[in-house]
Write a structure and sequence with these properties.
The chain has 200 residues and is an alpha+beta fold. It has helices at 2-45, 148-155, 158-197; strands spanning 53-56, 71-78, 87-91, 99-110, 113-119, 131-133, 137-145.
Length: 200
């Protein structure tokens, strides 16, 4: 009796393993899909509402506040509320007019226009220009996510973008087919004992 009970216990445990792995794989797939949708929502869709933007730090001029590879979250700030000490993102008024995120060290308002002088926390000298802020708002730094910017740079690469465009739908299709094929097999297993008990 003991030997038979032990063999039955081992058989039951062996039968449970595939089910455990199947449920774990399904849970991981759902988590991955949920994470992908969350990233798409936070980084791809919501920034277009104008509530906030995300920017990847590429230089070390603002160390130790943030460093290359960090992700900064900026939100609109009324030009009338821009103050010394704030960190803002703006287009520099020279060369390629790229976006720069530095700390405001002086605010000049003249003729209805707002101008700022800025400086990187890690720089010894201020930026060599007086920058005019256009529009009605500036973009003020509200949060820093360390090292998350490298992931954004990676996601924006052409190869990863093509993989996302073609690979994600394929993965979803395979997951759907796997679920369709799995359900009848599970139903057949459950119905087998009843069929065996029914009279012929």
């Amino acid at each position: 009796m003991r030997a038979r009970s032990a063999s039955r216990g081992r058989g039951a445990a062996a039968a449970l393993r595939p089910a455990v792995f199947r449920h774990a794989g399904e849970l991981l797939a759902r988590l991955a899909l949920g994470l992908a949708l969350l990233v798409l929502l936070l980084l791809g869709l919501l920034p277009h509402t104008g509530w906030y933007r995300t920017e990847t730090v590429l230089s070390g001029s603002m160390r130790p506040t943030f460093a290359p590879g960090d992700l900064v979250v900026v939100t609109p700030e009324r030009l009338a509320d821009v103050r010394v000490g704030q960190m803002i993102s703006y287009h520099i008024p020279v060369d390629d007019h790229h976006v720069q995120t530095h700390r405001v060290i002086a605010v000049v308002r003249h003729g209805g226009q707002t101008f700022v002088r800025t400086k990187g926390d890690a720089n010894n000298a201020r930026d060599p220009w007086l920058a005019r802020l256009n529009g009605t708002t500036a973009w003020r730094v509200r949060a820093v996510v360390p090292k998350a910017g490298w992931g954004i740079v990676w996601l924006r690469s052409p190869r990863v973008r093509r993989l996302a465009v073609f690979g994600a739908p394929l993965l979803l299709a395979l997951l759907g087919l796997w679920r369709i094929w799995r359900v009848p097999a599970a139903g057949g297993d459950n119905e087998a004992p009843d069929a065996a008990r029914s009279p012929s």
